Fold:
Amino acid sequence: MPETVLSGSALLARDRGLLWHPYAPLDGPAPYAVAAADGMRLQLEAADGVRFEAVDAMSSWWSAIHGYRHPVLDHAVGRQVERFSHVMFGGLTHEPAVRLAEQLVELAPDPLRHVFFADSGSVSVEVALKLAIQYQAAAGRPGRHAFLALRGGYHGDTFGAMSVCDPLDGMHSAFPSLPVQHFLPRPPAARLDGGGSLVSDGAAVAVWTAELEAAVARHGHELAGIIVEPVLQGAGGMHAYSPECLQALRRVADAHGLLLIFDEIATGFGRTGKLFAGEWAGVVPDVMCVGKALTGGYLTLAAVLCSATVAEVITASEFRALLHGPTFMANPLACAVASASLQLLETAGWQEQVRGIEAGLRASLAPASGLGSVRDVRVLGAVGVVELHNAVDIPAVTRAALVQGVWVRPFRNLVYTMPPYICTPADVAAIGAGISAAVAEVHG
Structure:
């Protein structure tokens, strides 16, 4: 029996009251129905029946860096389906997982040499936190099981990950049973200078570093590690900060025997203009989480990489293993498409792609800085942000941008873009113009 293709309005009617969408009530504003996605573009239909074709300025929450229906990635998935789609990873291995792990180790900085595959970004953070606690216990410091994190940080929605998110803007108040962690102030903001360096106020960095040192002096005896999003805090506010702060974190972690964990889930694979954002500071963490763009947006997959030193301590411990094992760990389909995505990233020349997007966003978002509602406009790599003085009217700005042919998903007081790397200069210009026009129309 042939499958019936529903109209957008019919689909939205069936969705309402049935499906929860992220951070939205069952009876909240209707989403947009997707009819098709190809290349840079989405075909959407609103609840009132109006149809839109829009450039996807969000890369489907920063993951679809090669766009939709990319032939290389489609082929990788299809070829793996013909072999096998899934096998358990307990007691078994397979070529897609081994190949992808080798690629990740090749791309990652020394001494990150060991890989654990997880289901999602949030789960990879859980694994990293568990790894740090196991490491400290194996090193003879079982009392170290708390973490130091940053105000303004975001690391995911599972319990451990939530506990190291910003305690005020996060979801801590709704979940009083979360583990209690320690937090540093948000690091001082940084901006790109004319020479392509991220610079910040030196005095502010010195004050922040003193607070870091004082916090670790107070709590070091109970800390297993420090977890941060390097250089760019994503869902916590699209806040770029000084690479000097990462250097200070590395020094302090080494001095106190703490593991330094970089959450590169949003920033990894070129998004900030470096392959990994830690490169802005020349700092290598002990543990690194990657996800989102890893599979090019095709399937959910994340990875935790750790240094050989950390792995040796775990291997010599009582349990000898990292105590985590998801059912879909190292799913062959996800690993196969991730491997193809990483190869495509290199052959397509991501550096030139991201540099072009950065230049285009600087030019096309510049008019927004003259709007009365706008506090700041900033660009770093393939990330463009328009920050308003007040909260964004999300439904109105979303619709106004769609009328301009651009799909965005604002949050809080931010209208931002993280477009796919395949953007043409015309696409980037359209994104910037669409965002500026939407903000002007709704907020003035």
Q: What stands out?
A: DSSP finds 13 helices and 18 strands in the chain. The first helix runs from residue 8 to 15. The first strand starts at residue 33 and ends at 38.
